[in-house]
Amino acid sequence: MSQGGAAGRGTAKPQDQGWAWMVLVAAVVLQALTLGFPCCIGVFFTDLQHEFHASNSETSWFPSIMVAVLHGGGPLCSVLVKRFGCRFAVMLGGLLSGLGMVSSCFCKSISQLYLTAGLITGLGSCFSFQAGVTVLGYYFVRWRTLANAVASTGVSLGFTLWPLLSQYLLDEMGWRNTFLIFGGILLNCCVCGAIMRPIGSLPQPPKPEEQPGSRAEEAQLSNGVSPSHPPLQQHARRTTCLQVLQKYLAFDIFCQNKGYQIYTIGVTWMMMGFALPHVYLVPYAIHNGVEERRAALLISVIGLINIFIRPFTGLLSGHRVFTGRRIYLFSLAVLLCGLSNFICIISAEFRVLILYCVILSIAMSGVGALTFQVLMDVVEMDRFSSALGLFTILESITLLVGPPLTGLLVDITSDFCYVFYTSSFFLISAALFMGLSFCALEKKNKLREASKVPLSNPSRYPYSETPSDPQAESQPPPAVVYITSI
């Protein structure tokens, strides 16, 4: 029996009732602890620079690694969940996150922070968040959409509280003691994981006859060839690797599905500039004379508005009026993000920066609510998990390199305005690329239908060019879905 199966044996199913709501509360806290945490790193940016005599580029590698690993560790988390279950993955992630931050308070160089706070804490946050979202798919069936919408408010809650707490602790006891306290706070992910008890038995590893490469070995034996034959062993290993890549990283979909291809490239390009305001807004405000406590408040304003706007945006975009058109809403939200950056360039006064945060937060709510909705529009649900694996890996690469490269530009020019110029360039160009490309693709598909040219690969998705099998409405949740939040 899979983890998503019923507890059964004459007892009532636990889905959508009782303990499921406690699991939802734990998921809200998890998202606040994991996805909300990186937003506060900008508060420590100036102190870390002075402590380690590091440049903007060197300092920005620390949050970049953390965010990139958090987003790109999905396939690894998938393997962990399938082998040991969601509860184990969440609790392991909590231990790693706490260990990473506790170790960070003893670092003697900025490069050591890359390993402790960047890699270890980022990987732990990835495990806790991804597995925490996955378990909601098992505990909720009828109210699954509502549960995910409520859980996503945890991100906004973290955005609101982490910067305020960070600035207070930094003023009172310095960054090293603050990181030590953060380690203890992140250990609460283990408590959240303990609440997420499994439904049914844990996932079992595949049986020997079902393992990849077993059929190849059987064929060898039937032909009188020993499976230990080196060339055949190498072929079996290559086949296994290809099957694993096909399962977790859908390169075939990327090559065949034009909609998925355009969207993945567009979002990957967008991520080069999307995270820049989160990393550099507080240092930019302090550099222009804004008091440190007020500068930290800017990130909290973004999070507070997100709490109310993001669920509303998600529910609105789910209306049937927007079916097949969500990509254009997404492109519009990305475009607004890019255009809002020019407000910072015009003036760095606190009142102007508050206005910027309000507009940016509204646009970010649209991006966060629509990112995976659009992906579901362009990819068949039976391949969604593997398509999302490649999607998150590629976006994590640009999330990793974007802030350090921009920091290098700031180091060369000594002008923080280039942060917002760079962010606007990537966001606006990505929005135009996706919007115009999907418009052209839609026109191409309409021309095909008008000319009655039979399609060899028909699809029920508006932008997909890959075959699709009809899915039952009561399809059980996938074994694991790696979801990130923007």
From TrEMBL:
It comes from the Eukaryota. It is a multi-pass membrane protein. It comes from Onychorhynchus coronatus (Royal flycatcher). The keyword Transmembrane applies. GO terms for molecular function: monocarboxylic acid transmembrane transporter activity. GO terms for cellular component: basolateral plasma membrane. Coiled coil: none annotated. The chain crosses the membrane at residues 21-45, 61-81, 88-111, 117-139, 146-165, 177-196, 262-283, 295-315, 327-347, 353-375, 387-406, 418-441. SUPFAM superfamilies: MFS general substrate transporter. Residues 203-233, 454-478 are annotated as: Disordered. This is MOT6 protein. It is found in: Membrane. InterPro entries: MFS, MFS_dom, MFS_trans_sf, Proton-linked_MCT. Keywords: Membrane, Transmembrane, Transmembrane helix.
